[in-house]
Amino acid sequence: MISRTPAVGPGPAVVADGRVTQRELLWTRLFRVLPHNRSLSQPEWERRHRAILILLGLYFLGLLAFGLFRGVAPQHLAVDVGAVLVPSLWAAQPFGGRKVRSALATTGLLTGAAIGVHLSGGAIEAHFQFFVIIPVLMLYQDWLPFLLAIGYVLVEHGVVGVLIPASVYNHGAAVEHPWLWAGIHAAFVVAACAAYISLWRLGENDHERATASEAIVRSLNRNLERRVAERTAQLEASNEELEAFSYSVSHDLRAPLRAIGGFARILSEEHAAKLEPEAADYLRDISKNAVEMGQLIDDLLQLSHVGRQGLALEAADPADVARRALDKLKPEMEGRAIEVEVANLPGCNADPALLQQVYLNLLGNAIKFTRACTVARIDVGSIEGEGPVVYFVKDNGAGFDMAYVDKLFAVFQRLHRQEEYEGTGVGLAIVQRIVTRHGGRIWAEGEPGVGASFYFTLAGGGAG
To answer: CA 92, CA 190: separation in Å to the nearest integer?
Structure first.
């Protein structure tokens, strides 16, 4: 004995051995072809219902005027227009649900069409109006008014048209052979209904695809929001770890470093006479490296702080910022022949403190790497074109090989030996991080022995 598993949703039922019966397969295919009554939102349905009610009002006024023009008895005219008015008024009420209200509107509309035919004595053929009314009723996208309309046409043509053909048809052939013409008109109505149902179903397919796409988008958004929340939590945890690390570096590492430098200094000052020259050199190297280690810690903390602090954007004058940075660098320029030219620069929107750090680092590098020049030349300027303003700092110093330009902005990467030019290799990484946080970019050009040029943009460049 073969047992059946119940069908789920619109899919076909499957027997235990996996076969689908022909009846179930036919029903499944029919279900997929026919509309499903689920494509209209309530606001859209209300909008369409109002349009049909307006059409009902026009039918009522038309019937009233037509009846008065034809001289219909007042009592008969009152019954005729009342048959349209009553369901129309009921359908206009906000209660009753979609199906009740659409059925009432359909009844009023079709009754108005039938009464118009009979008032004209068949001069207006019924099927011409029904061909218009049926697609109008499809605005509801509901089987109830649609089937009600088809049933009304069936009664009007198949019953009244056969029994009282003169009241439905306006030509002799139809009056003499009502069955034949009823069949002809029925064929036209069936063909029209098939076309309307197909359009209805196609509209539902588009709606279903749009709904499926919206569901996918909502699901992707939910997943994205979840992942963003997870990443945010991870970032907050990383920031907390970084804060703890920065505290450890700032306090726990500085203490032994100060001790190393202090003891080395004490030995050099108080026991210099007892130390051999080689031992004294070792102590000087210890002190020097302790100082360099302290500077490296400061630079790393500054790099970390730049990546985490908030931006206080405001209108800034880069030329004024560059001049104030040069004032701070004057001790490094004493005793040297340095020509510095700061041009008038377009304003920008930036964090003034961070922008000053950019110029401090770039100008500090220019001063340092022009040390071997008899006369050093440093230019601070800008280039304006179609895109954002490009600010630059140029020098005629040691320069660099463009083959290694990608290493310039990496932490701890140096293109010159420590013995030639001091530094930690963090300064340009700080500059790049500041510029990037301002929505800009930085790049460099150079040539060994000729000089170097550093260019950068800011998202607010040229404003203010």
So the answer is: 30
The pLDDT value given to residue 124: 66
| pLDDT exceeds cutoff 80 at 356 | yes
Q: For residue range 389-413, list pLDDT tens digits in order.
A: 999 999 998 888 888 788 787 765 5
> pLDDT (tens digit, 9 = 90+) per residue, 111-160?
887 787 777 766 666 556 666 676 676 677 677 777 777 777 777 777 77
Three-class SS of the chain: CCCEECCCCCCCCEECCCCECHHHHHHHHHHHHCCCCCCCCHHHHHHHHHHHHHHHHHHHHHHHHHHHHHCCCHHHHHHHHHHHHHHHHHHCCCCCHHHHHHHHHHHHHHHHHHHHHHHCCCCCCHHHHHHHHHHHHHHHCCHHHHHHHHHHHHHHHHHHHHHCHHHCCCCHHHHHCHHHHHHHHHHHHHHHHHHHHHHHHHHHHHHHHHHHHHHHHHHHHHHHHHHHHHHHHHHHHHHHHHHHHHHHHHHHHHHHHHHHHHHHHHHHHHCHHHCCHHHHHHHHHHHHHHHHHHHHHHHHHHHHHHHHCCCCCEEECHHHHHHHHHHHCHHHHCCCCEEEEECCCCCEEECHHHHHHHHHHHHHHHHHHCCCCCCEEEEEEEECCCCCCEEEEEECCCCCCHHHHHHCCCCCCCCCCCCCCCCCCCHHHHHHHHHHHCCCCEEEEEECCCEEEEEEECCCCCCC
CA distance 8 to 10: 6
**Residue holding tokens 């377009």?**
346
pTM of the model: 0.46
CA separation for the pair 418, 408 (Å, rounded): 15
Maximum distance among all alpha carbons in the chain?
Answer: 143
